[in-house]
Amino acid sequence: MAKGRIRVRLKSYDHRVLDATCEQLLDTALRTGAKIVGPVPLPTKTSRITVNKSPFTDKDSQETFVIKVHKRVIDIVEPTDKTIDSLMHLELPAGVDIEVKM
User: Which residues form the Small ribosomal subunit protein uS10 domain (predicted)?
Assistant: First the structure.
């Protein structure tokens, strides 16, 4: 029986893919008998980048691009050996950055 807590941090540009990944993790962990806290939504990081449309004459006209990074945290409080094994073999969609801390 594994002891401790597993904290899974998820990051993605698309919140729909992130929510689908959270659902897969929750289903897998609950099926193996672990207790779960979350998913807890963390603040979304918004980056704005402003560039000139034209380098010379129309210098005052600019375009603004926005990149949003959505984040979630899932705590697996009482993981079992079966939970850890099934999470290692889980196939998740592309575009989600996963950080696991024991």
Answer: 7-101
- Residue 82, domain member (yes or no): yes
Measure the CA–CA gap between 18 and 24, rounded to whole angstroms.
Answer: 10
Phi, psi of 17 (to 5 degrees): -65, -40
Q: Is 102 exposed, middle or buried (0-12, 13-18, 19+ CB in 10 A)?
A: exposed
Sign of torsion over alpha carbons 74, 78, 81, 86? negative
- Give the chain's domain count: 1
CATH number of the domain encompassing residue 74: 3.30.70.600
Per-residue model confidence as pLDDT tens digits over 14-48: 999 999 999 999 999 888 888 898 899 999 999 99
